[in-house]
């Protein structure tokens, strides 16, 4: 049996919420969760607000420390604090492209930044990399001179994708990356992500509450509810025969929001 | 008689780059007691249209229209005072971001009471108590259970869904005849969204309120609306009964929008590319002439540099030179932009 690209064992997170009678109290944001992800696969994490899906994504990318459990990347354990090692492997696309890009930097500088801190390339090589990635997401090399406010929302999200691609990661985590976008822009970005997956063999972890997109896009789905994993199945199985009551309700609610055609 | 009848509304904005036509010849008809959906991408001028109807123009706007009738009265000829009297009492609006459009330093209940009319029949010492009671009644009606607690809390203490419900209560407390809901469920969860929409349809059915529902989510609008208008870059593309538009779109843009919704009848392969229009919506400074969809449209031809007239087939309206329909009704020799 081959080792999966990413294996997560009993990952959990609790937040310190203050003292009660001189004793430290915690809230359990995420009960122990285990899953694995193979190369070229897409895992979707579904759940409502407060279900711990964003926490899970943030732990995986290293923005939050974990309280327990292990993460294995191709069989090697990822340490809690070694961010330099992790940010080359796992990168993130944020929800709102309007606020996640630094307005004071040109797009070229913005994309240059991860290379500056994590590689030993000189300026010319870095420039080549930036142009290469810009081309890959369907932008022109001239866009490197632009500031984020000068381009449209869809293009901004493309820049965000380019920034995630910068260090040639294996896994990209998209935390609600498509919810803030318009319908037509959304499918353009979705097409872009699918194309990149085919070309570069990327894996995605996709956090969303729109089951409609997820059904089209992902291979495996994990349903979270109040920090607990409720169900984990392949897309086909989950939608055709949801096992857990909560999943059934989610799918029903979504069906209520779907046009009858 | 339609409740609101707008014909060829044009709004021009004075920007540093010159004058820009943000809305171009928009026509919209809302009948009494219908839910009218308005779909468009961000920047397509939906909110401008809503503000123009309500009568809160920006300082650099120029509004021109052939006709803008509210229940038989011309809105354009009204004095600002008359417009102000309509605002809030007959036309009410729910704004985009509920938690930021409520006042953060005043308790929610006071804001609601402020928006309600005084009952002139009662003696003045009875009014305060009566107002409080009606405010609670409205909050209860929009689906808030713990009315006492919500009334005495600030906007930032409430969740997004609760804030939105309070906003709706404020809007409907005067029993308006038209409710303009500008993205009422933006960034909410599916569960809250369904609640809010159910509430709006209930208001529509019980109180005969007409609702103009503005959103970018065609999926949700197509379930809740009777009539649908599709807008792109400040031009109305297509308008008509929802079910007919969904089943058979006449306009290329509507068709492209519908293609963007993944569909599981087995026709689309899992993880396949979705059909999209090339390019992106143009910025306000660089609008194309004629039909603004022109550069992205799959059907576009030379004729499209003239703006097509809105043409009328039974109860459907569409503005296209080459619609997905047997005979285009435009007399093309006479079209002018």
From TrEMBL, chain A:
GO biological process, one term: transmembrane transport
InterPro entries tied to this protein: AAA+_ATPase, ABC_transp_ATP-bind, ABC_transporter-like_ATP-bd, P-loop_NTPase
Keywords (A to Z) from UniProt: ATP-binding, Nucleotide-binding, Transport
Keyword ATP-binding carried by entry: yes
Gene3D superfamilies: P-loop containing nucleotide triphosphate hydrolases
A matching Pfam family: ABC_tran
Keyword Nucleotide-binding: yes
Domain of life, source organism: Bacteria
UniProt-listed CDD domains: ABC_NikE_OppD_transporters
Positions of the ABC transporter domain: 6-251
Record's signal peptide: none
Transmembrane regions: none
GO molecular function, one term: ATP hydrolysis activity
Protein name, UniProt field: ATP-binding cassette domain-containing protein
From TrEMBL, chain B:
UniProt entry tagged with the keyword Translocase: no
Keywords assigned: ATP-binding, Cell inner membrane, Cell membrane, Membrane, Nucleotide-binding, Transport
Location (main, coarse): membrane
Pfam family, one: oligo_HPY
Molecular function per GO: ATP binding; ATP hydrolysis activity
Domain ABC transporter: 4-258
Gene3D superfamilies the UniProt entry points to: P-loop containing nucleotide triphosphate hydrolases
Keyword Isomerase attributed: no
CC terms in the record's Gene Ontology section: plasma membrane
GO biological process, one term: peptide transport
Subcellular location: Cell inner membrane
Protein family according to the UniProt entry: Belongs to the ABC transporter superfamily.
Record PANTHER family: OLIGOPEPTIDE TRANSPORT ATP-BINDING PROTEIN APPD, PUTRESCINE EXPORT SYSTEM ATP-BINDING PROTEIN SAPD
Name of the protein this chain belongs to: ATP-binding cassette domain-containing protein
């Amino acid at each position: 049996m081959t080792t999966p690209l990413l294996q997560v064992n009993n990952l959990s997170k609790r937040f310190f919420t203050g003292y009660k009678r001189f004793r430290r109290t915690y809230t359990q944001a995420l009960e122990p969760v285990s899953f694995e992800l193979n190369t070229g696969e897409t895992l979707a994490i579904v759940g409502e607000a407060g279900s711990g899906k964003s926490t899970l994504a943030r732990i995986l990318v290293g923005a939050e420390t974990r309280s327990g459990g292990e993460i294995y990347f191709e069989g090697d354990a990822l340490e809690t604090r070694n961010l330099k090692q992790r940010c080359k492997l796992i990168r993130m696309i944020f929800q709102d492209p309007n606020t996640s890009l630094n307005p004071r930097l040109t797009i070229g500088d913005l994309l240059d930044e991860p290379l500056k801190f994590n590689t030993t390339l000189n300026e010319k090589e870095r420039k080549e990399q930036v142009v290469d990635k810009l081309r890959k997401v369907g932008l022109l090399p001239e866009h490197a001179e632009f500031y984020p406010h000068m381009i449209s929302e869809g293009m901004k999200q493309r820049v965000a994708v380019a920034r995630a691609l910068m260090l040639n990661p294996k896994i990209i985590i998209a935390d609600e990356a498509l919810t803030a976008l318009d319908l037509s822009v959304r499918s353009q970005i979705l097409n872009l992500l699918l194309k990149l997956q085919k070309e570069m063999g990327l894996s995605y972890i996709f956090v969303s509450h729109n089951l409609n997109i997820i059904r089209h896009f992902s291979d495996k789905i994990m349903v979270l509810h109040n920090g607990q994993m409720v169900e984990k199945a392949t897309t086909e199985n989950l939608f055709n025969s949801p096992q857990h009551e909560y999943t059934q309700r989610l799918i029903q609610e979504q069906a209520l929001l779907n046009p009858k055609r | 008689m339609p409740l609101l009848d707008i014909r060829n509304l044009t709004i021009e904005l004075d920007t540093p780059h010159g004058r820009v036509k943000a809305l171009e010849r928009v026509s919209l008809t809302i009948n009494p007691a219908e839910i009218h959906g308005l779909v468009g991408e961000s920047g397509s001028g939906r909110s401008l249209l809503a503000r123009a109807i309500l009568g809160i123009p920006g300082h650099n706007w120029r509004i021109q229209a052939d006709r803008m009738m509210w229940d038989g009265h011309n809105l354009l000829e009204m004095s600002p005072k008359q417009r102000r009297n309509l605002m809030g009492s007959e036309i009410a609006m729910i704004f985009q971001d509920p938690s930021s459009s409520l006042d953060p330093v005043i308790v929610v209940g006071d804001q609601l009471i402020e928006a309600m009319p005084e009952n002139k029949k009662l003696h003045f010492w009875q009014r305060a108590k009566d107002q409080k009671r009606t405010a609670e009644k409205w909050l209860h009606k929009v689906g808030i259970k713990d009315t006492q607690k919500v009334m005495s809390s600030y906007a930032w203490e409430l969740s997004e869904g609760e804030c939105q419900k309070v906003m709706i209560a404020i809007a409907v407390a005067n029993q308006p005849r038209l409710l303009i809901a500008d993205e009422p469920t933006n960034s909410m969860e599916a569960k809250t969204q369904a609640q809010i929409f159910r509430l709006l349809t209930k208001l529509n059915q019980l109180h005969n309120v007409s609702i103009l529902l503005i959103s970018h989510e065609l999926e949700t609008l197509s379930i809740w609306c009777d009539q649908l208008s599709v807008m792109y870059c400040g031009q109305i593309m297509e308008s008509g009964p929802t079910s007919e538009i969904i089943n058979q779109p006449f306009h290329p843009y509507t068709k492209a929008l519908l293609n963007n919704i993944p569909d599981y009848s087995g026709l689309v392969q899992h993880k396949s590319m979705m059909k999209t229009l090339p390019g992106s919506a143009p910025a306000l400074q660089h609008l194309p002439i004629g039909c603004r969809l022109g550069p992205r449209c799959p059907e576009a031809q030379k004729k499209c540099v003239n703006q097509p007239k809105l043409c009328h087939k039974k109860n459907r309206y569409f503005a296209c030179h080459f619609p997905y329909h047997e005979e285009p009704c435009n007399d093309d020799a006479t079209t002018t932009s």
